[in-house]
Amino acid sequence: MHNNEQDRISPISRRSFIATAVAGLTIASVAASPLKHLQGGPIKIKAIAFDAFPIFDPRPVFGLVNQLFPEKGIELAETWRTRQFEYTWLRTAGGIFKDFGAVTEDALVFAANKTGVNLTTAYRRQLMDQYLALDVWPDVLPALETLKRSGIRLAFLSNMTGEMLKSCSRHAKVDSYFEHLISTERAKTYKPSPVAYQLGVDVLQLKKEEILFAAFAGWDASGAKWFGYPTFWVNRQGAPGEELNTSPDGTGKGMTELINFIR
């Protein structure tokens, strides 16, 4: 769950994302068409490496926070979300690794202490368990079906642990679409470290130019571009672009735009 303060999901957001008719897209055009890289000539995309959150919808986690702590839910959720990613970046910079589940729980404890809520053992477990049972966004299943038929290989490349990716994939019934569930825990670091992005190249055994990285957060899109991946930002929150001297090759609000981009 790859984000800075601009990329936080508002726990009170009720924005609906309408399922789109991507299943009707022409399969052959998706598979055969080259992609124009911003810094070079035409290239052929052979695989897509997804961050977890263009696929999985994390909003129920923050809805549960509001349900359990109605008076301080917004403050708790925002503090938790911010600290979660700050801890991954701090641990990456310091070279002291803890897996994403542990980091997420540490951030939750910090947020509870800061906001003064009574985080019981039962509440703590309930919130952490929600990260193991995320559903997909409404536009995901038809898009995955289209991509699968096209012959493009699909993988996750996420800061989430392997256990989280496997559990959510099975819960949401999308595990059959993904060839690899690549967690950055394999490298004992987090994105945007180049070592983390290199996992996609190593596991898929493709050139980085042949792997489209699909980011959820603006900072992750920037990190993937720094590494050298052609990059599409699935900007579901409508966040402004980062000021990091790079831009994704494409951007859109959902999976329809992603498929149109690679057609």
Describe the structure.
The protein contains 10 helices and 8 strands. By secondary structure, it is an alpha/beta fold. The chain is globular, with a radius of gyration of 18 Å. The strands form 2 sheets. The protein has a 6-stranded parallel β-sheet with strand order 5-4-3-6-7-8, sandwiched between helices. Strands 1-2 form a two-stranded antiparallel sheet. The protein has 2 domains: 166 residues, 3-Layer(aba) Sandwich (Rossmann fold), CATH 3.40.50; 72 residues, Putative phosphatase, domain 2 (DNA polymerase, domain 1, Orthogonal Bundle), CATH 1.10.150.240. A hairpin with a 5-residue loop joins β1 and β2. The N terminus is likely disordered.
- CATH architectural category of the largest domain: 3-Layer(aba) Sandwich
**Annotated CATH topology of the largest domain:** Rossmann fold
Number of domains: 2
Largest sheet: 6 strands, parallel
Query: Helical element count?
Result: 10
CATH class of the largest domain: Alpha Beta
List the strand order in the largest sheet. 5-4-3-6-7-8
Q: Given the C-alpha coordinates, what overall shape results?
A: globular
